Amino acid sequence: MKPFDYVRAEDPAAARKAAATAGATFISGGTNLLDLMKLEVMAPDTLVDISRLPLDGIEDHEGGLRIGATVTNSDLAADMRVRRVYPILSRALLAGASGQLRNKATTGGNLLQRTRCPYFYDTDTPCNKRTPGEGCAALGGETRNHAILGTSDHCIALHPSDMAVAMRALGAQVEVEAADGTTKLHEMDDFYRLPGDTPHIETVLQPGDLITAVRLPAPQGDRQVYRKVRDRASYAFALVSVGAVIRMEQGRIAHAGVAFGGLGTKPWRDPEVDALLTGNAPSRELFDEAADTLLRGAKAQDGTEFKLPLARRVLRATLEEATQ
Amino acid sequence: MKITLTINKHAQTVDVDPRVSLLDALRGELGLTGSKKGCDHGQCGACTVLVNGRRINSCLSLAVMHDGDEVTTVEGLANGELSPLQAAFVEHDGFQCGFCTPGQLCSATGMLGELEDGWPSHASDSLEGGYELTEEELSERMSGNLCRCSCYPGINAAIRQAAEKDGAA
Ligand SMILES: Cc1cc2nc3c(=O)[nH]c(=O)nc-3n(C[C@H](O)[C@H](O)[C@H](O)COP(=O)(O)OP(=O)(O)OC[C@H]3O[C@@H](n4cnc5c(N)ncnc54)[C@H](O)[C@@H]3O)c2cc1C
Ligand code: FES
Ligand code: FES
């Protein structure tokens, strides 16, 4: 690991100030950043420790919830309001990582965790995300845990978060304090960026921006399902996951918020899929049409071809469960 | 940097480079070599310790981030005699080479506390609580600890026995 300065921030303002210097990075649970620092995939000059900032509360907020950035994944999954009103979020969190990791992983860190693409991790191979302009070893290389939606000629790295998929399905907002102290709200739908020709830029955040919370609106659907398919039954990232927030009225789908993991270069949601489902009675044909819509722009590699039929089946199974 | 950790109930001050993981501080600086380094990347659970009562992977945490924290390692589980969980591991052959065992013990100790607090798991049918340590629940809740010798039947039997004595299952 490269040497770095360690600063423990006493309050959010001090954290933002310390993080505004070049080469500085926040550290929260550390479960992703330290993993990458050990391999020197990331090598910050300064670590600004935000783990003791008073951002660890879950509060009722405008009919929804405001989840502090340093709330751990396990506390969030176990919160009774989340379990009862946003079960999709508890389910997504509990489907991720392990008990030990969830005790450290935080809301902000989970949103910003980096890809698990093996070439991003291997500093001996080219990676545009790690070193802009170097090339992409995954294109034409060994693929499996890679994206098939939102890819570019420069990057096919997958966003690995489960939690973020549930938050997208719920229509969450990310609350950010900028380096100058102003608060900004980003819709989850606009928070992540597609790789394009700048895959190293993953979100709309600016240097020094501190995520302070995630806001959940009152849920628009009471039928919530998170289904994750992976290489082993537990403690593995998603090959495909689908999160659905559905409201039924008189046998028809009155609201559909469907988001996907394991498929996109960012936590995926497609307004056309939601629109297609809305107003219709659930049927196998409808769900197949939704899969056609979802996958219309998909670009698979040899190693990710299997995700096309898998995504279709997981989507169908999720929607059947959520609408029955 | 100088930090103070309360390890197995004793306050200890150490001077560590910011790069040192909690695991390396325990093993290298403090001579507590019970906690093991399997992967050093959060993938095996051999380094599991309890921090302020919660199980974490000590390999993926910086020692300097734990100034003032209470740490329990496998060396601190026994209180004069083996804890019921430790005794159950001996009784049920919960190990072969023993490399994963300190992590299994610390993890299971933390896990039983989570169960008592009514935390749900991926294996739970309902999110409403009232969980019992079924085979599915146990395997899921302990999935963060791998055993290369595949002693899972013995490990699970030991944890179940300790849980029953505890009244948790
Ligand atoms: C073996 C293993 C298996 C895993 N399996 C899964 C899985 O199945 N599903 C899944 O979703 N995840 C999984 N994870 C990933 C895990 O969820 C993440 O490592 C974790 O959520 C990151 O949170 P953290 O608080 O530890 O982040 P950190 O490592 O502290 O930070 C990550 C990044 O976020 C930035 N950051 C953190 N907080 C803030 C903030 N408030 N404002 C601005 N920037 C911030 C940091 O600067 C850093 O760049 C796994 C991890 C491991 C090691
Ligand atoms: S050594 Fe920490 S999880 Fe493997
Ligand atoms: S007893 Fe050998 S690794 Fe578990």
From TrEMBL, chain A:
<keyword id="KW-0274">FAD</keyword>
<dbReference type="InterPro" id="IPR016169">
    <property type="entry name" value="FAD-bd_PCMH_sub2"/>
</dbReference>
<dbReference type="InterPro" id="IPR016167">
    <property type="entry name" value="FAD-bd_PCMH_sub1"/>
</dbReference>
<dbReference type="InterPro" id="IPR002346">
    <property type="entry name" value="Mopterin_DH_FAD-bd"/>
</dbReference>
<keyword id="KW-0285">Flavoprotein</keyword>
<dbReference type="Pfam" id="PF03450">
    <property type="entry name" value="CO_deh_flav_C"/>
</dbReference>
<dbReference type="GO" id="GO:0071949">
    <property type="term" value="F:FAD binding"/>
</dbReference>
<dbReference type="Pfam" id="PF00941">
    <property type="entry name" value="FAD_binding_5"/>
</dbReference>
<dbReference type="InterPro" id="IPR036683">
    <property type="entry name" value="CO_DH_flav_C_dom_sf"/>
</dbReference>
<dbReference type="InterPro" id="IPR016166">
    <property type="entry name" value="FAD-bd_PCMH"/>
</dbReference>
<feature type="domain" description="FAD-binding PCMH-type">
    <location>
        <begin position="1"/>
        <end position="221"/>
    </location>
</feature>
<dbReference type="InterPro" id="IPR036318">
    <property type="entry name" value="FAD-bd_PCMH-like_sf"/>
</dbReference>
<dbReference type="InterPro" id="IPR051312">
    <property type="entry name" value="Diverse_Substr_Oxidored"/>
</dbReference>
<protein>
    <submittedName>
        <fullName>Xanthine dehydrogenase YagS FAD-binding subunit</fullName>
    </submittedName>
</protein>
<dbReference type="GO" id="GO:0016491">
    <property type="term" value="F:oxidoreductase activity"/>
</dbReference>
<dbReference type="InterPro" id="IPR005107">
    <property type="entry name" value="CO_DH_flav_C"/>
</dbReference>
UniProtKB/TrEMBL annotation, chain B:
<dbReference type="InterPro" id="IPR036010">
    <property type="entry name" value="2Fe-2S_ferredoxin-like_sf"/>
</dbReference>
<dbReference type="Pfam" id="PF01799">
    <property type="entry name" value="Fer2_2"/>
</dbReference>
<dbReference type="InterPro" id="IPR006058">
    <property type="entry name" value="2Fe2S_fd_BS"/>
</dbReference>
<dbReference type="GO" id="GO:0016903">
    <property type="term" value="F:oxidoreductase activity, acting on the aldehyde or oxo group of donors"/>
</dbReference>
<dbReference type="InterPro" id="IPR001041">
    <property type="entry name" value="2Fe-2S_ferredoxin-type"/>
</dbReference>
<dbReference type="InterPro" id="IPR052914">
    <property type="entry name" value="Aldehyde_Oxdr_Iron-Sulfur"/>
</dbReference>
<keyword id="KW-0560">Oxidoreductase</keyword>
<feature type="domain" description="2Fe-2S ferredoxin-type">
    <location>
        <begin position="1"/>
        <end position="77"/>
    </location>
</feature>
<protein>
    <submittedName>
        <fullName>Xanthine dehydrogenase YagT iron-sulfur-binding subunit</fullName>
    </submittedName>
</protein>
<dbReference type="InterPro" id="IPR036884">
    <property type="entry name" value="2Fe-2S-bd_dom_sf"/>
</dbReference>
<dbReference type="GO" id="GO:0046872">
    <property type="term" value="F:metal ion binding"/>
</dbReference>
<keyword id="KW-0408">Iron</keyword>
<dbReference type="GO" id="GO:0051537">
    <property type="term" value="F:2 iron, 2 sulfur cluster binding"/>
</dbReference>
<dbReference type="Pfam" id="PF00111">
    <property type="entry name" value="Fer2"/>
</dbReference>
<dbReference type="InterPro" id="IPR002888">
    <property type="entry name" value="2Fe-2S-bd"/>
</dbReference>
<keyword id="KW-0001">2Fe-2S</keyword>
<keyword id="KW-0411">Iron-sulfur</keyword>
<keyword id="KW-0479">Metal-binding</keyword>
<dbReference type="InterPro" id="IPR012675">
    <property type="entry name" value="Beta-grasp_dom_sf"/>
</dbReference>
